[in-house]
Amino acid sequence: MRRALPLLIVWVGAATAAQASPEICQDAIVAGAARYTQATAKAVAACRQHHVADCAADARTAAKIARAGTRLQEAIGQRCCGVDRVCGTGDDEALGAIGWGAGFCPNLDSGDCNALIGGIQGIAPCLACIARSGVDNLTGLAPAPPPAGDAVLRCAAAVAKESGRLAATTSKVLATCWAAREAGKHSNACPVPGDGRAGPTIAAAEARATAAMCKACGGADRACGGPDDLTPALLGSPPSCPAVSVPGGAACGGPIVTLTDLVACAVCLAGHVAECADHAAVPQFVAYPPECAAPPGTCSPGVECVSAADCPAGYACLDNGSGSTRYCVGPICGGDGECTGGAVCQQYCTFEGCGARRCVCPGFGCGEAEVCIDDGGLACRELCTEDADCPPPVGVCVNSTFGSGLCINSTPCH
């Protein structure tokens, strides 16, 4: 028995290593992303049911979401990052082999979820950003600000509970559908035609959510459309539903005047959230739907970005570390001809230092060891740690004792 034990250990380790493959990695990404979406939707819904004014700042909710994020990163690391299960060490699955060769996060709506992805370790933050941004879209539908009567509070809690539950259920059904495709049981897009079950299951979940919200908010007849319905105005709902769409399905935008409008918006947003978060996780099967991200922007020379939606496709709106300057940054490049959207190939410098040349919008380029910063006007300033690092005639390093010194000399960014 003592001699057999080492052989058993070697055999198990070899089997584990042999099982690693792009397909297993893809399965882990899809399943992990779905679990994160479900956990986040449930956590935020639970917070909203307790009528917390700001769920984004709620410590309990933040802890639940953080744990879900850790589980997502660990799940991907265990199945995508080689024998050592540590991402970024050289034995990871190649991004192109698992459908992530585009090198950037596909964003959600007009948000800020298109960070550059240079390795497996960037996938989990991308998917978490999209799911969390989507779930946040649900939070403003029925905030029920105090003071509010019991009926209004019950209604607001129902809208929170049912919209969150619907998003979680849709996510779970979609993950099951894609798992069946990965296993060779069908070759369709999910949910429709999918595995033949996903579409009807989601439709049934939408009907249940609609009925539950109407029952809680519809007055004595417990139905939407009656004269005793609670109004969206009583709940503090926004005047209109966000102008987004379910991929391949309904458009959500429109005024929210009646309870029927509010319930329809909640159902539509839950579908948008779940399906976009799901589709971001399966680039090996489907292209990211245009309904999930605003059309990409183009470079306007010398114009800073507000979010990723202002940037060309494949570019992220990044802060250079100053907290005051954001501009579009794209992939590593060797020359201007490799850049799209009107960008040029420039050395990319931040307050952490200078890296490889990247595609950036014109108007933000500087020389080596210089950073383009907006401190009342865009200017190139050289990074420094002491006065000796700065060129004459001024030769003064400002803020050197804080580890982010800049020479007082400046030239226009180009």
A few lines on this structure:
By secondary structure, the protein is an alpha+beta fold. Helix content is 38%, strand content 11%. Strand 7 and strand 8 form a beta hairpin.
What would you say this structure looks like, in words?
The protein is of the alpha+beta class. It folds into two domains: 4-280, no CATH class; 308-380, no CATH class. It is 38% helix and 11% strand. The protein contains eight helices and ten strands. It has helices at residues 4-19, 22-49, 59-80, 123-136, 150-182, 198-217, 232-235, 259-280, and strands at 240-241, 254-255, 316-319, 326-332, 344-350, 353-360, 370-374, 378-384, 397-398, 405-407. Strands 3-4-6-5 form a four-stranded antiparallel β-sheet, with no helix packed on it. A four-stranded antiparallel β-sheet has the order 7-8-10-9, with no helix packed on it. The protein is globular and about 80 Å long. The N and C termini lie far apart (72 Å). The model is unreliable at 1-18 (pLDDT under 50).
Strand fraction equals 5-15%
What global shape is seen? Answer: globular
What's the number of helices?
8
> What is the rounded Rg?
25 Å
Average pLDDT rating: 89
What is the count of structural domains?
A: 2
Please list the strands of the largest sheet in the order they lie side by side.
3-4-6-5
For the largest beta-sheet, the strand count, sense and barrel status come to:
4 strands, antiparallel
Helix content: 25-40%
SS content category: alpha+beta
Instruction: Point out poorly predicted stretches.
Output: 1-18
First-residue to last-residue Cα separation: 72 Å
Taken in chain order, the helices and strands follow as HHHHHHHEEHEEEEEEEE
Beta strands, count: 10
